[in-house]
Amino acid sequence: MHHKKPGILLVNLGTPDAPTSEAIKRYLKQFLSDKRVVDTPRLLWWPLLRGVILPIRAPRVAKLYASVWMEEGSPLMVYSRRQQQALAARLPDVPVVLGMSYGTPSLQSAVDELLAQGVDQLIVLPLYPQYSCSTVAAVWDELARILATKRAIPSVSFIRDYATDHGYIEALAASARASFERHGEPELLLLSYHGIPQRYAHEGDDYPQRCRDTTRELVSALGISPDKVMMTFQSRFGREPWLTPYTDETLKMLGEKGVKHIQVMCPGFSADCLETLEEIAVQNRELFLEAGGQKYEYIPALNDDAAHIEMMVNLTASYR
Q1: What is the mean pLDDT of the chain?
Q2: b/e string for 275-290 if b means 16 or more Cβ within 10 A?
Q3: What is the Cα Rg of the chain in Å?
Q4: From the centroid of its chain, how far is CA 21?
Q5: β pairing state of 188-194 and 96-100
Q6: Tell me: the pLDDT tens digits for 37-63?
């Protein structure tokens, strides 16, 4: 009987190689050229991207990246590497490789590395807890493109998402409880997920539903009253309507309405990155405090927390 050799491919979005305008231009150009991310017709989009968006956004984004950059590099890369190393340590017989949809290490390099090790069963774990066409489907597309160049392709187990996975919900709940113990229980726990254009949802992306599923399970695991939890969407970009309510507008409104103490968690991010460390922990904190709020804590992503790694072990177990 042929014994399969499994290998795990961990995938996240990616990050610029350095907090410089040049590196960010390179990264954003690749990211914003993906049809899964921005589906505007190319003839309209290319001139806008190259002539307006990149020249204006890159220097601005470079400053923001510089403010959260860690000694070992970009936060997303640092935490993703730690996740990969921790998972590999738990599974000594299974190769675990990290690939990014954009930037380095590329998905191509990760797949090649696994195939070079004789892997014939590819277990793909995109580290997006809630499916979206703009994240998970982009991984699927790129994977198909890579395998299209191979004579022999492995069998592929593709983990679409894990929005209600028990281990994931428990890890989030433990993290929230630890924050409540450290800072006191807030009047409101705000769950901020990355937004997508409203139109993607109308066209069949079940991302909003997956976010609601995670929120429901987390509220249930924490055993707190649902009216002490709010779900919002962050990081919108461009002119068209995105999923609402918007995180920034909600925080302003809550501060103005007299809510004093808030804690914010981003259950859609498996690793801390610019959108959590700068946008949520800094910018949105300022919005809330300026509007009259008094206490604001950001609850970090699960990163390489032991319970998070344990979840990955269990999530991939049935495929190994």
Answers
A1: 97
A2: bbbbbbbeebbebbee
A3: 20
A4: 23
A5: unpaired
A6: 999 999 999 999 999 999 999 999 999
